[in-house]
Amino acid sequence: MVEIHVLSDGYARDPDRPEGGDRVGSTVGFVRDGDILIVIDPGMVRSREESILQPLVALGVEPAAVTDVVISHHHPDHTLNAALFPGARVHDHWAIYRDDEWLSRPAEGFELSANVALMETPGHTPQDITTLVRTAAGIVAFTHLWWTAEGPPEDPLASDPALIHVHRERVLGVAAEIVPGHGPRFVPGPDTPR
């Protein structure tokens, strides 16, 4: 049976807000599907040790055992710690990388395991992908189409704002739960930004 864990809930703090500060953290996910061990978006966090490595070890997983890393898009806040997993294949929107090997392939429909597949969902950047994980309770989507459960309704950094809305509808058509790029996982409802 597939397991899903959020190693670190992400955040994005606006320096103009009272609690602010120029700080950003990626939501870092972990999926175990049999022998396939996947880390999603190992980007910027408060502490690599406390936010990524210790939670993995608590799940019985050493960094060298991770088989795959998925990068939702190429911003540093989602990629910075990918090298923590030296044996992993790294997946992005158009290829798989390992050591000096570059295997080009489209992300759309690519299956990392029996229960984990990629979906191309550009909008925040032209290279965005969503990781879909099939569980007994339904599909869980790791995605940057939402930063948090509240949206934002309009992504202020989107390269193509219209595509955000198109792909939100597409993901909501299959996902029972969302793990957003910078916040805790949530179950979408009528107030979820479309």
Structure description:
The chain is of the alpha+beta class. It has one domain: Ribonuclease Z/Hydroxyacylglutathione hydrolase-like (Metallo-beta-lactamase, Chain A). It contains three helices and 14 strands. The longest helix has 12 residues.
Summarize, please.
The protein has 194 residues and is α+β, with helices and mostly antiparallel strands.
Q: What amount of the residues lies in strands?
A: 25-35%
Strand order of the largest sheet: 1-4-5-6-7-8-9
Radius of gyration: 16 Å
Would you tell me the structural class of the helices and strands? alpha+beta
The number of distinct structural domains comes to: 1
Note the gap between the termini. 31 Å
Number of helices: 3
- Sheet having the most strands: 7 strands, mixed
Per CATH, the architecture is 4-Layer Sandwich
Helix content: 10-25%
CATH topology term: Metallo-beta-lactamase, Chain A
The secondary-structure element order is EEEEEHEHEEEEEEEHE
| CATH class bucket | Alpha Beta
Low-confidence stretches: none
Shape: globular
| β-strand number | 14
